[in-house]
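new request in #modeling-help
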Amino acid sequence: DQQVKQNSPSLSVQEGRISILNCDYTNSMFDYFLWYKKYPAEGPTFLISISSIKDKNEDGRFTVFLNKSAKHLSLHIVPSQPGDSAVYFCAAVARGSTLGRLYFGRGTQLTVWP
Amino acid sequence: DTGVSQNPRHKITKRGQNVTFRCDPISEHNRLYWYRQTLGQGPEFLTYFQNEAQLEKSRLLSDRFSAERPKGSFSTLEIQRTEQGDSAMYLCASSIGAGAEAFFGQGTRLTVV
């Protein structure tokens, strides 16, 4: 069963505009969330994370928002740049668990066009 | 370079052959994970180690798969009697502890023909 869901397989945005990537989760034990970026033929690269005790975390052009009651998080990229074109994966982990493995969504392909 | 290193980057093998992949984690990281990714899917968890102890194995990891991490340093993932369905990108990641950010290697692309 897919405990982390990214329902939009693709997103196309013009350079300079905002990109919003969405993610939903079902497991209420998840308490830490991460976004990874992946280029073809490479491994995922860590981008930004958020703990469940926060509702927002910013790092430069990237901001992640968490809505625990809705079990929803989103990644905002402002302004979007062509180099941001990649697959973005949302991941979640239950840090209170002794297991600690990451659960991934299926990814969203972001294309930023000039 | 102090990132996670995986070898080989690509492997083509005939069905029925055995293959082994190696992962060298970031040196101070005590957790090491193996994931598998197929086209259109996110990385799927296979197994992980804390130091040399293998703490969890996914149901995806059939008896043909085995992983080791001797002395809590590098890890190997072996697939015996490969099948075409094993074709995928095999990803290794390491982290400094439970729930910390996991850093991935570049992966090993396996093609079974």
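bot summary: Chain B touches chain A at residues 4, 6, 31, 33, 35, 40-45, 48, 55-56, 91, 93, 95, 97-99, 101-107, 109 (CB under 8 Å).
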